[in-house]
Write a sequence for this structure.
């Protein structure tokens, strides 16, 4: 087994997910079988092959840095679960 | 004459142009059709009647004034719930985006508005486009119009089912690993994923950014060309959209296929030595024979690295998804879990309650493969094999103008049949995934039916920006067969339920 339930819990924290005990067990089994399935890639000789990150060879598409109209504060905050005085409200971050 | 709702966009466009029907009447006919079949199909998660009425009225007014209108003005469209629609709720069929009303339109939605298309509603999909059956939707699954006990495919299953059940004339989908082509195939309609970068993704909820592409699901190849004319072109707000000029795609229709070199891909017919369903294989071979009869030069080609497509995709797509979906944290929009003492707990509880099982599975997988110590073994390796897959395609295209095979290894499968086995579900995209990895255009064209009456799709894959050659072959094939003329009649057969849902 590649992944232990403790490692699954650590990955869940990195991914900002909370798992129930039942989910942790199920994911441990499922992720292990998926990772095992990935093993077949090790058969492929990729010595010196550059990785492909994108289907088209375009990089750094630039535009002029000029001011343009954007959303108003009201529009930007319109979907916020909680907002106050043009700000998004979140639970206390700094003690 | 066929009922209005059964007609294609180009047929309706002529009726509208001759003022034999108004856009308002057409929109009303579509909602009347939905009243008959939508309870069974569940192609939509939101209907936008008021918007549709207003848009249709505007088209009618402009036509009454004698204005020259775009070809598809007044044509009713279903939009996958992945496209941001200004003032219209957009949830990606996830609880975490419940109640999200975008303050802007996606680039393709803007184009549809400019061309006078009429928005019927938002169509059902697998949550965040992760799935092959719509069973991962937080809003319930859709049913296949050809057999209500079968899935319509996914993730754009609602868009395909709505067109196949004549609840939409055309629809929009997105395709990351087959999400336009596989449901189009399973529902017996035409679907195309254009070349990566051909269509703007501005305002489209991102899943795996190096693979995602927008495209149409329609009733026939001419409608596909007309929709490409609406959708394609560069958008400065999407840095990956291509600056290439956009042709009039309808010019590709009607040109003969004589001399077109077509390769039947061995690895589409059998993945790692396991062949596609016999009926699917037979229908595809018959289609290839038809193309040959029409004058195309056919040969079998082998692209051996396609045998690694599934693991490559399921490393790359979840890795990109785990990053893209980090933005759903309960702060700026969407769902937030109730009282939490600190912000990390707020994030975790929000995402636990907001995401479904498959989305969590892919976030977990992507987070793991990108984490320290594993990057080289998984993501880097997958990227290298992706290069080999693309090189296989490049080599094949030195000899062929088009590549063909099946779209899906099976016809539509049963609802609930694969939900407990992620890898079995992943394998249903085995023929479509390599095309996304290569960034190539691909389409599904109806090419027959199984003995049980379920549709089969022919997969046509083009070179980068090779959409015209694809349309040319697809149109010639379609016109010589007629599978596209059959319409599903969504019918309930088992005792104890309404016997006939739709009356023709």
């Amino acid at each position: 087994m590649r992944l232990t339930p403790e490692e699954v819990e650590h990955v869940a924290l990195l991914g900002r997910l909370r798992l129930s005990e039942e989910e942790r067990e199920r994911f441990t089994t499922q992720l292990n079988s998926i990772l095992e399935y990935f093993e077949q890639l090790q058969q492929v000789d990729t010595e010196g092959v550059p990785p492909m990150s994108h289907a088209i060879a375009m990089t750094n598409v630039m535009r002029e840095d000029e001011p343009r109209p954007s959303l108003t504060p009201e529009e930007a905050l319109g979907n916020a679960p909680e907002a106050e005085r043009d700000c998004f409200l979140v639970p206390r971050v700094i003690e | 004459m066929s009922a209005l709702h059964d007609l294609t966009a180009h047929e309706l466009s002529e009726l509208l142009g001759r003022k034999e029907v108004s856009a308002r009447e057409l929109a009303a006919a579509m909602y009347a059709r939905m009243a008959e079949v939508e309870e069974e199909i569940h192609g939509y998660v939101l209907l936008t009647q008021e918007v549709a009425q207003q848009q249709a009225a505007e088209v009618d007014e402009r036509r009454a004034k004698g204005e020259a209108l775009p070809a598809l003005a007044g044509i009713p469209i279903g939009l996958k719930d992945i496209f941001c629609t200004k003032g219209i709720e957009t949830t990606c069929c996830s609880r975490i985006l419940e109640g999200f009303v975008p303050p802007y339109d996606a680039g393709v939605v803007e184009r549809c508005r400019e061309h006078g298309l009429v928005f019927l509603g938002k169509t059902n999909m697998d949550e965040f486009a992760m799935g092959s059956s719509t069973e991962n939707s937080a809003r319930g699954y859709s049913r296949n119009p050809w057999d209500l006990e079968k899935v319509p495919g996914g993730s754009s299953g609602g868009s395909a089912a709505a067109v196949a059940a004549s609840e939409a004339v055309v629809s929009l989908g997105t395709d990351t690993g087959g999400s336009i082509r596989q449901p189009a195939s399973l529902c017996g309609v035409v679907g195309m994923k254009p070349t990566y970068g051909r269509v703007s993704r501005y305002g489209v909820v991102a899943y795996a950014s190096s693979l995602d592409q927008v495209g149409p699901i329609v009733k026939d190849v001419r409608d596909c060309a007309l929709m490409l004319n609406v959708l394609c072109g560069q958008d400065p707000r999407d840095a990956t959209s291509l600056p290439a000029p956009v042709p009039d795609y309808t010019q590709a229709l009607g040109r003969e296929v004589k001399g077109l070199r077509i390769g039947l891909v061995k690895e589409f017919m059998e993945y790692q030595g396991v062949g596609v369903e016999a009926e699917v294989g037979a229908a595809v071979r018959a289609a290839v024979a038809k193309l040959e009869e029409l004058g195309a030069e056919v040969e079998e080609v082998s692209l051996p690295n396609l045998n690694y497509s599934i693991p490559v995709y399921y490393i790359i797509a979840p890795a990109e998804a785990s990053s893209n979906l980090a933005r759903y944290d309960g702060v700026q929009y969407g769902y937030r879990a109730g009282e939490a003492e600190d912000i990390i707990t707020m994030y975790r509880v929000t995402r636990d309650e907001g995401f479904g099982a498959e989305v969590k599975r892919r976030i977990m997988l992507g987070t793991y493969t990108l984490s320290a110590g594993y990057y080289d073994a998984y993501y880097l390796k997958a990227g290298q094999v992706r290069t080999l897959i693309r090189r296989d395609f490049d080599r094949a295209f030195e000899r062929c103008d088009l590549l063909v095979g099946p779209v899906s290894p099976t016809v539509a499968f049963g609802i609930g049949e694969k939900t407990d086995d992620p890898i079995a579900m992943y394998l249903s995209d085995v023929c479509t995934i390599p095309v996304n990895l290569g960034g190539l255009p691909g389409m599904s064209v109806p090419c027959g039916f199984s003995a049980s009456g379920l549709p089969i799709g022919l997969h046509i894959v083009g070179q980068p920006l090779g959409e015209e050659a694809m349309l040319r072959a697809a149109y010639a094939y379609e016109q010589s067969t007629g599978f596209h003329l059959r319409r599903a009649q969504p019918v309930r057969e088992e005792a104890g339920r309404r016997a006939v849902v739709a009356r023709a």
Observations:
- The CA atoms of residues 50 and 56 of chain A lie 14 Å apart.
- Chain A touches chain B through 49 residues (CB under 8 Å).
- The radius of gyration of chain A is 23 Å.
